[in-house]
Specification:
Blueprint lengths: L8 H13 L3 E4 L5 E4 L1 H7 L3 H4 L4 H5 L5 H14 L8 E7 L5 E11 L7 E8 L1 H19 L3 E5 L5 E4 L1 H7 L3 H4 L16 H11 L1 E9 L5 E13 L2 E10 L1 H23 L4 E5 L4 E5 L1 H7 L9 H5 L4 H17 L2 E9 L5 E13 L2 E11 L1 H35 L1 H20 L4 H12 L10 H4 L7 H8 L1 H9 L8 H7 L20 H15 L11 H10 L7 H12 L7
Antiparallel strand pairs: 1-2, 1-5, 3-4, 4-5, 6-7, 6-10, 8-9, 9-10, 11-12, 11-15, 13-14, 14-15
Helix pairs in contact: 6-14, 10-14, 14-15, 15-16, 15-21, 15-23, 16-20, 19-20, 20-21, 21-22, 22-23
Length: 581
């Protein structure tokens, strides 16, 4: 090692020891002058030992805004051997030769050789990678804690490494209690004997689904649908699992199964819920007795179609009549569902399976069978309500994630919300399907979620970013995709987050995709992203205004931005059909 040794024997001995035993050591005297600078320090900060020894520590590696505090600390140390960092391990920001910053962990010890001033040795470690890993863990924890279903981190031996709040609530345990338990304690499908086989299968496949039951602290069980995912993070293997409570689904399936059996029996037993109708003479030529009994029809009270229509629910009459007229023109068979009044005055859903009789391509008669499908309709409505509840839960999760980002950077939070508004307006102008717009709204609302791993000082930095800082900012697309890729959204939310900085000519990042290789939703978000960003204030500049923003996307229409999305945005903003809320 090229280390310049002090003349003092005590310092010489200390330097020799540090050179052999410590990889990250720096020594300073009572005035804050550097006396020890080993090869690790050179690698970390960029200064050679020749450049560093004899220099003031705070001038060399302490950021400018911390100089005064560092000087004050050295004065206290020189006088008494004490100081705010002596004998402690603390985290701070350090400065390299190229003026870049990085998070460091510093452990400082003081000593006073006989007849000499106080000396200090600092062990400095670059903890950038650890901070990045911590940020990803915090982002994941924030997401899973707001997720409405159970979420687990399980190690290779089946022990819980982490759980979210839903697990604690559903199972009735505290988080500390669960972290002392295993998957075998709550899920009878797994055992210590079978776990290695499950783990081997998971590692090979990457992920898989299965149904099981979970046992609460009170001994009760409930059915769950489990999604298991293999993750290797920091050289440690995990099973990252989601468990969805499917009690309602199982109940609905049971009800639906019973209804289907009942419905089949009904069909088999009512070979006669028939009717026939003469279109030419406008009269029913036959109505089965079971139909008359069910609907409470007295003899000779139903002769014409207008009499029949009175028995149909008022809200269904118009659409039923229109449907019948249109279908009988071209088709020989069709089905229609509507509500009819029963003998007791209540309403029931029925399905009519109808055949059309043609003479010289003209419909002259109808014949059909009517089935009571009221129970089936109730189950369908229950399932639809359940799907809507799941959709609301998913929306709440996205909102929670957006708020998590906003808690660190108000600029990003407001930006995401406004980009989502403009993206949806552009999509409506382009006449995209309602479901596609819903997915776009979700993706745009969290398109910058990856910024949750960035240091706050970079997000709000009032001056131009360094190349290293800008490269770190650009990584937010990849980080966002990594966070979202394993969540089963019904829309391409992860791809929107991943691709919103791609450009039509392939000049974007992170993948350099071109044209239609970029998903349409991401192309729309990229236009809205630029317009909103230029139209808003940022820590490093004032707002450039809407005119400048529109000029930007118009100039690069087809080169960077999707032409259809640009045209829709220009029309919305220039015709005053859109304003940010």
């Amino acid at each position: 090692m090229n280390i310049r040794l002090p003349v003092d024997p005590m310092a010489e001995k200390l330097t020799e020891t540090l050179a052999c035993d410590m990889t990250d050591a720096i020594g300073v005297d009572h005035q804050g002058k550097i006396t020890i600078w080993n090869q690790s320090a050179t690698k970390m900060f960029g200064y050679s030992s020749k450049q560093a020894i004899g220099m003031s520590l705070y001038e060399l590696i302490v950021p400018d805004h911390m100089h005064q505090k560092a000087q004050k600390g050295f004065k206290a140390f020189a006088a008494s051997g004490k100081g705010p960092m002596i004998g402690k391990t603390t985290e701070c920001i350090a400065k390299r030769k190229d003026n870049s910053r990085f998070p460091a962990e510093v452990s400082v010890s003081g000593f006073k050789p006989k007849g000499h001033h106080w000396q200090a040795v600092a062990v400095v470690r670059d903890i950038s990678k650890r901070k990045q890993i911590d940020g990803v863990f915090q982002a994941n924890q924030c997401m899973i804690d707001h997720y409405s279903d159970e979420s687990f981190w399980i190690d290779q031996d089946g022990h819980f490494v982490n759980v979210n709040k839903t697990v604690c609530r559903k199972l009735g345990y505290t988080r500390d209690a669960l972290l002392g338990m295993t998957i075998f304690d709550i899920d009878p499908i797994f055992s210590r004997h079978s776990w290695p086989k499950h783990w081997k299968n998971l590692k090979k496949r990457g992920s898989f689904h299965l149904e099981s039951v979970h046992k609460t602290s009170s001994g009760k069980t409930f059915p769950v649908d489990i999604s298991m995912n293999y993750i290797c993070f920091g050289d440690i293997e995990y099973n990252f699992a989601f468990a969805v409570d499917i009690t309602e689904r199982k109940q609905a399936e049971s009800v639906l199964g019973k209804v289907e059996v009942k419905y089949q029996k009904l069909v088999d037993s009512v070979a006669a819920l028939p009717w026939t109708y003469d279109i030419t003479h406008d009269r029913f030529t036959f109505l089965g007795e079971q139909i008359k009994t069910m609907l409470g029809i007295r003899p000779n009270t139903i002769s014409h179609m207008k009499d029949w229509m009175k028995l149909i629910h008022p809200d269904d009459r118009k659409i039923t009549a229109k449907f019948a007229i249109e279908e009988t023109k071209e088709r020989s068979h069709y089905e229609v569902e509507h509500r009819m009044r029963l003998a007791d005055g209540s309403w029931t859903w029925v399905k009519n399976v109808i055949s059309v009789e043609f003479v010289q391509n003209k419909p002259v008669g109808l014949s059909g069978f009517m089935f009571d499908i009221n129970e089936k309709k109730k189950v369908q409505e229950a399932l639809e309500e359940s799907r809507e509840q799941l959709k609301v839960s998913l929306t709440d999760t996205v909102i929670a994630v957006s708020r998590a980002v906003g808690a660190r950077d108000p600029y990003t939070a407001g930006h995401q919300q406004r980009v989502s508004q403009l993206s949806c307006a552009i999509a409506r102008k382009m006449r995209l399907h309602k479901q596609q717009i819903e997915g776009l709204r979700m993706g745009a609302a969290i398109h910058d979620i990856g910024k949750i791993h960035l240091p706050a000082e970079i997000l709000v930095k009032p001056i131009k970013l360094t190349d290293i800082e800008y490269a770190l900012v650009k990584s937010h697309s990849q980080v966002g995709y990594d966070i979202l890729k394993d969540i089963s959204f019904p829309w391409p939310v992860a791809d929107i987050v991943y691709q919103h900085h791609e450009r039509m000519d392939g000049s974007g990042y992170p993948l350099g995709l071109k044209g239609n290789a970029i998903c349409l939703e991401a192309r729309i978000v990229s236009v809205a992203d630029v317009v909103e960003a230029m139209n808003s204030h940022r820590p490093y500049r004032a707002a450039l205004g809407m005119d400048a923003a529109l000029q930007e996307i118009e100039t690069h229409r087809g080169q960077w931005f999707d032409p259809a999305a640009v045209d829709a945005c220009l029309a919305l903003c220039r015709e005053k059909d859109f304003t940010f809320e």
